[in-house]
Amino acid sequence: xxxxxxxKSVVDSFRGKKMVSSSTYSTLFVLSFTxxxxxxxxxxxxxxxxxxxxxMKLVEKTTHxxxxxxxxxxxxxxxVVRIAGPPESSGTGFGDTMMTDDLLTEGPELxxxxxxxxxxMYGVSAQHELxxxxxxNYVFTEGKYNGSSVSIxxxxxxxxxxxxxxxxxxxxxxxxxxxxxxxHTVKLDMKTGDAVVEYNVYVSxx
Length: 206
Ligand SMILES: *[C@@H]1O[C@H](CO)[C@@H](O)[C@H](O)[C@H]1NC(C)=O
What we know:
The chain is of the alpha+beta class. The protein is 18% helix and 41% strand. Strands 1-3-4-5-6-7-8-9 form an eight-stranded antiparallel β-barrel. Helix 1 crosses helix 2 (22-38). The longest helix has 17 residues, at 22-38. Residues 1-21 have low confidence and may be disordered. The site of 2-acetamido-2-deoxy-beta-D-glucopyranose (NAG) has 4 residues, from loops.
């Protein structure tokens, strides 16, 4: 059996397409042998290339996530705190910077099932329009993705109907993630700044 064929049968068994057979066991033996070559047990190795191990195991998939983000700026149940900015706010609030621990829910109501939290920062990054720099981790607390997170770094031109922000990474099941988030405001209180935002996130990961 060539190395290429052995690698393919490992990929198939990860996909669940193949029943466990003696050839799978021998493949796993070869795999563990290969890994012990790729990850030598040595003291003080500064860096190693792991390309071979990654190409053997991983199959990329895309996951669609749908949820609602609650930015509660006002009141005693506020999940947002202003952490920096100029002493006197300009028209757009340029420089105002907030830290959030916002709830993510399954449905648009705040009382709907909580599926995660948006922990991070946003700051007003434009002088002549309402545009934010978003630096956020969305961590999930329900179901399969409990404990996994995706990281967003992007521009949020808040008055647009649909804003696109890059997913630049992730953790847990979203390790090595990349993708994009589409945000659409469903409710905005212009007086307090409280907002409910619908998110559709498309994330490619392994
Ligand atoms: C999510 O994971 C945490 C930590 O492992 C655990 O305490 C919690 O019960 C889990 N939640 C659900 C809904 O499974």
